[in-house]
# Entry
Amino acid sequence: MGIKQFNFSNFFDNLIHASIHRPDSSLVLENNFAIPIQTHSNNIKVVKRIGVYDNVDGLISSKEYNIPLSIKVADCMPIYIYDRVTNYYGLIHSGWRGTKNKIISKALDYFISEFNSFYSDIFIVIGPHIQKCCYEVDWDVAQYFPYSIKNNEKSKWFLNLNKEIKSDILKFNIPIENIYSSDICTYESLLCESFRRDGINSNRMIGVIK
Ligand SMILES: [Zn+2]
# Structure
């Protein structure tokens, strides 16, 4: 069965649980999570109770409300955010559309403007996603991303969403050592689900933070 779960809690000093699961794990969403109906938007919802939230790709809550946030991904980036001082936390789904439309910046704006985060108290985990080795696109997509690299032989471009997101995060002066980025490529790792690899047969991984 292999590893079913990547746990990122260590990076958050074990003060918060952050992980990503394969669908065959024992994790059952049902009635115990805040669940976004994702649309590759840059919409973010601040939630105080469990339930299903339509047309959002990012959720933010506080330990005060004790709500596990979830997202589903297969190649897109799951981005976990935690402020160790204010105890606010968030979970963002960012594929190329979300990255282009700066959902991460919108989320960090919430932390800083609405919830009074100090930039150096914010810690961020970028979970497994399709990496620059495998994220092949055409110019219609690559044109939006300064870190995309052209492969001349193939006349294709390769996206580096990891670098794009980090660049957006660093604009908030969040220290680089506060960012952990998984180097696991979902397309290559059979421990992960990948929409690009498995197409309509692919499942989704479930990211959770609580
Ligand atoms: Zn790869």
